Structure formats: structure tokens, C-alpha cells
Amino acid sequence: xxxxxxxxxxxxxxxxxxxxxxxxxxxxxxxxxxxxxxxxxxxxxxxxxxxxxxxxxxxxxxxxxxxxxxxxxxxxxxxxxxxxxxxxxxxxxxxxxxxxxxxxxxxxxxxxxxxxxxxxxxxxxxxxxxxxxxxxxxxxxxxxxxxxxxxxxxxxxxxxxxxxxxxxxxxxxxxxxxxxxxxxxxxxxxxxxxxxxxxxxxxxxxxxxxxxxxxxxxxxxxxxxxxxxxxxxxxxxxxxxxxxxxxxxxxxxxxxxxxxxxxxxxxxx
Length: 269
Known about the structure:
The chain is of the alpha+beta class. It contains 9 helices and 8 strands.
């Protein structure tokens, strides 16, 4: 066994491992199926000759499962439970988060936790958050990668390409982001919120969006206090690098000065 195979026994490429780092760096915990659907959607249209959907999934996720196996060997990823679908849940280690920070070009301090244990009970909420991201991304197949595939495969992929575009890239999304009403970004105090998703996609005219994903396990009365926690965060001000007071959220994210988010510093929705 030589060079590359010794280092990466599953034979994964740098590109495939980069796919995994970018997706898990943003989502924190995901299945190989979700990683593949986001980073290599052209594979969704292959392996239709397999007899069952399960066999098709196994075939189209094989490359990313191999990348995950190689990353586990290098202590960059680990398995953290099983989803309701039966898929294994994957997350990054601290070493993996550091590598992902380079792929996503984010400071390590903004990468969050490793999400270890998030899938111990099936990860129903993280899975719902991930599916929300996929629905918003609407990943498009790379038709060049299907150049040698049968006409029916290319036609199915082209139909997806022709659908309305999604919002942002995987690097546009953050998950489980603390919004401190007290304390600091990296050490939030009591009374703050935690956004399920934060989206920043100025290229799609969406400079900043906070998203809550509900599994319908909470009543309206239980959800209402979360809105007040958001309002407390938006009302919070702090000194910026120029010594002037400004909304705390503006020290981390950028949005037009006239953006309606500033109104949340004066009144709740």
C-alpha cells in the first residue's frame, strides 16, 4: 500500500474531504446523505439502475462515506448517533472544526462546538435544521459532471438546474448561534437566545436573517419567550472599535444602516 492509500485508506480526495469539512463546519451534525445532497447534488441522478432507494443511497453516498472514514482516522470526524432514517450522524472533532474554519474562512472562535452528543437521541431537531438549509440552498447539479451520463439522467438533472435558484452557499449558513443578552459572544450569560440558523447572503439580497426551526414540539406559549430573548439581544449595545456605542449584532454581522433589524432595538415584533 503506497502513499495516498496509507494516509487515506478509503481513498478519498482532498475535494471530498473539503466537502465534508464545509458542510459539517456549518451544520455541526449531519448524515452522509445530507452532506452529499449539499455538496455533490449531481450524484442524486445517478445509480437509478439500483433496485431499491436504499441501494441508490448507498451508492451515491459511498464517496463521502469514504471521506468520513478517512477523516475519522485523522481524528477530524466522529460518529454521534443514528437518525430516525437509520443513517449515522456525523460531527467534527475539535481538530476537524479547526480544519473547517480554514475551508469556510471563519475564525475558529466563530465555529461553535463539536455538537458531540447532539445525535444521541436521533437528532430530530438538527436534522430538521439541515433539511431547512437544503430547502433554502436548492443545490444545483453540475451538468459538466454528468456529460457522459445517459440522456435521461442529464434531462432529470437539467430540470433541477432550471428550477428557481436557492439562497447563498453552504458558507452562508451558521447553526446554533448564541445571541447573548448578557455576557460575551464566546461566553453568553443568562437571558439570551440561540438562533437555530443564521443566514448571510448579500449576493442574494439577504444580508442577514435569523431562522427558528420548529418540530411542533412546543406550544405558542413556550415559543413566545424566545421572541423576547431575541428582542433583548437586538436591544443590546456595545462599544465598537471606534469607541462608539452600536447594536451588538452589528459588531459581528453587516447589514445596510437602514435595515429594519435596527427597529428591533426600539420595539419588539
